[in-house]
Structure formats: C-alpha cells, structure tokens
Design a protein that fits this description.
single chain, 4 helices, elongated, alpha+beta, two-stranded antiparallel ribbon, 10 strands, eight-stranded mixed β-sheet
Length: about 220
C-alpha cells in the first residue's frame, strides 16, 4: 500500500470527511491513476484516511493510504494529483508503506483564540495555567448525548503566547486516538473556565502527527 501526505487549507476545510474521500478518489481518476477495488456487486476502492479531520479544522499532515490497480505506475504521482485536486487540497509527498494507523497516537496542534476588542491583560499566562492545571472538565458531545469529561489527561503538553494585539496562540501536543481529543475543546475549556477570556472566534490547526514514542508518524 502507498500513502500520500496532503494538506487541507482555505475553503477546503469545510469539506466533510465523506466528501473528502470522494474528492480524493475523483482526483485519482482525473490524474489517470486507477485505484484497486474490491470485487463483488458493489466494489469499493482501497483507500483510507489515517485520522478523520473535523470540519473547519485546517491541517498540513493528513495521510491517505491507497492501493493502485495492477499495472499502474506511481511515477510523478504528486504532480499528477496536484493538477487534479481542488484549491485548498495539496499533495505534499508520496511514499510506500509506513507505520500502522493504529500506531498514530499524538497530534501537534495550534489553536488561535481571537478577540475583537484586543487580547485581555494576562490572557496568555492564564490560559496556559488552565491547560496545564491538575484537571480540566469540559462538556463534550458523545454518542449518548452531552457529557462532562476531564480532558486534562489527553493534553500531553501545552503553551500559550500572545501572537498579536487580537490573538492568543495555543500550541499543544494532544492524544489522537484511544482516547482522542478534538482541539476545538481547548477553546471550549477556556470559555467554560475563564469566561472573561472567552474568545470571539477560535480556529484549530493540525500541525503534525506522531507515534506514542514521540517519533514522527509516517
């Protein structure tokens, strides 16, 4: 199985997981690259994403695993795909094999907290203290409805710094799977526990993916 590393930015962040899978498969067809399919009445392409990405989150470290049909040559796959992909989705690299998806354990993320009236005094230090404190209960949605969970054990490290007059940038290493933490919950935690520092707008970014041993995941 081969893999591509790709980014999802700009307006493409609003493409859902299922639609993204369709976009990528169409790009392979447009690039003249035939994917291997299952046999039977309703064949499916051998493609899978390492970790579903929440709508609205930007990423520069998405990984798609796929298998080309017999006789297909990867060749200049990156260039061919980029000519077929829509704006905001760009193939960064292609390679053979890699670690099992189940070994993907950590995400390096960035969350920008934006304040229309300017960053409140001492906000960055207060937010960092909150995210690195002993516990951090946050209301989150589960399959059975809304529940309160302590997300602090899923934050491996975190820091916050004022980026400019209206923005605080939070950087964190968080759990990616079993359990997983949506980086959007970091902004929700700030609003819940420090309402005076609740941002007017927040945006999340995936920066990189790692295995449990801290090694770069590919």
């Amino acid at each position: 199985m081969r893999r591509i590393l790709f980014s999802k930015t700009g307006d493409a962040i609003w493409i859902s997981h299922l639609d993204l899978m369709r976009v990528l498969q169409r790009a392979f067809r447009r690039a003249g690259l035939l994917l291997r399919h299952t046999e039977g009445f309703n064949p499916h392409a051998f493609v899978s994403l390492a970790l579903p990405l929440s709508v609205g989150t930007e990423s520069r470290c998405e990984i798609l695993e796929f298998d080309l049909a017999e006789g297909q040559e990867a060749g200049d796959l990156v260039a061919r795909l980029n000519r077929a992909l829509p704006a905001g989705i760009r193939c960064l690299a292609s390679y053979e094999g890699g670690r099992k998806f189940r070994d993907l354990a950590q995400l390096e993320v960035r969350v920008l907290l934006q304040y229309d009236g300017g960053v409140p005094s001492g906000a960055a230090a207060s937010i960092e203290a909150l995210l690195t404190g002993p516990s951090l209960p946050v209301e989150k949605k589960s399959k059975s409805g809304w529940t309160v969970a302590d997300i602090r054990p899923m934050i491996l490290r975190a820091s916050a710094a004022q980026a400019d007059g209206t923005t605080v940038a939070v950087r964190a290493r968080i759990c990616a799977q079993n359990p997983s933490l949506n980086p959007d919950l970091l902004a929700r935690a700030v609003a819940a526990h420090r309402p005076e520092l609740a941002p007017d707008f927040a945006k999340s970014f995936r920066e990189e993916v790692y295995a449990a041993d801290g090694a770069l995941f590919r």
